[in-house]
Amino acid sequence: MRVVTLDDPSDFDEWRAKARALLLADIEPSEVDWEGGGAGGLFAGDDSIPAPVRTSVPAVPRDFLNVASAVLAHTDRRRHATLYRMLWRLAHGEKALLRIATDDDVAWAHTCVKQVSRDMHKMKAFVRFREVRHGEDTVYVAWFEPSFDIVKRVAPFFVRRFTGMHWSLLTPSRTAHWNGETLSFGPGASRADAPTDDALEDLWRTYYASIFNPARLKVDAMRREMPVKYWKNLPEAKLIPGLVRDALPRMQAMVDKQPTIPKKKITPLQKAVAAAPEGSITALRAQARECRACDLWKPATQTVFGEGPVHAKVVVIGEQPGDQEDLAGKPFVGPAGKLFDRALEEAGIERDLLYVTNTVKHFKFEPRGKVRLHKRANAEEQAACRPWLAAEIDRVQPEALVCLGAMAAQAVFGSSFRLMAQRGEWIDLPDGRKAMATVHPSYLLRLPDAEAREAGYAEFVRDLGLMRGVLG
Description:
With about 475 residues, the chain is an alpha/beta fold. The protein has 19 helices and 15 strands. The chain has helices spanning about 10-25, 60-70, 80-90, 105-125, 150-160, 200-210, 220-225, 240-245, 245-255, 270, 280-290, 325-330, 335-345, 380-395, 405-415, 420, 440-445, 450-465, 470; strands at about 1-5, 30-35, 45, 130-135, 135-145, 165-170, 175-180, 185, 315-320, 355-360, 365-370, 370-375, 400-405, 425-430, 435-440. α13 packs across α18. It is elongated.
């Protein structure tokens, strides 16, 4: 029997180097006795490594290396021998070993991996660093008692999370230290080496008590997810018995309390009503030519105001003018407008019955040589134009609004509206009207292939057809 001693029983690189040497020497797993703790040289009782009888070790799956690294953090004394046996089997023809879930070695290894992973999760969740002052320096120290030797595996997580802090993580098996630049490890510590409280914990306990919701209390789940062994390290633990005891009376008090009426959500268009200008549609159109609420008027040719019957039953709201709309001074006359007209015709709706306008009244663009490329208006520019839209709707007094595109839909319904999920359905508005949203015709023009454009166009026509029920 050959005894192999590991200086650090959890160190993957050390185990792999010695397992590789054994494999090259063609030493079977049954001939090896693994020992941990550094009591001796490479082979206790035999000072030499057997001469290799192989020139190379067969490749093993990367999954095995990941499994071995996790299993070595476990405390089961069988781990080194079992992993070497699995390595031997993989190197001697059992290439699919890790896929055999019913194999005793594989099942045992996966159980170890799950237990180690669960322990790592607990450490990440329940470690509490406490402030310690050393002259001008501040160090944060935490004490934790994991079930397995996982400090080296978890420490990089705390480096990423607390990069700007100097901290030490103490456990019985080993310690980790971060000085802002270098992560180092040392031998295990004792509970007395860590502070038991700091100046911030009273504040934390106050916050914890204030957010504790008695209606969501599940004691069994708390014990399952936060085992009692970790409680002594948590500053809020001393509050839990009292919070649990008082949960039922507090919950009953919440039930008995008079319910509050939730605040109504105010959409951007509703907010704009207060700033909406006075006057008829004709007067509004004239006023809008002089609007200087944002800078879009400077490069634009002219204001593009809405047009259509002043008492239309439906107001159709687009997003913003394009190049041809800017030149003509009318909405929806460019390529998107022509597609809109064709879809209206197929839906059996006359455009002359609709009041058609845009959320933004000026063309925003980015010059590219002689071409003016459309650029989306930002939030401030949209807000500056919204009072004009609110005034148009107020003068027309339609029964329904139809929004083309996300900009128009979110002006009417609010920022939480999701166009593709909620398109094509009437929604009642607080003012008694109803509104519906669908895609902007320019979206259909941007679709990548003919099949997508054809399907998207058919849905667009179907959505527009819903206006027939309002128009009569």
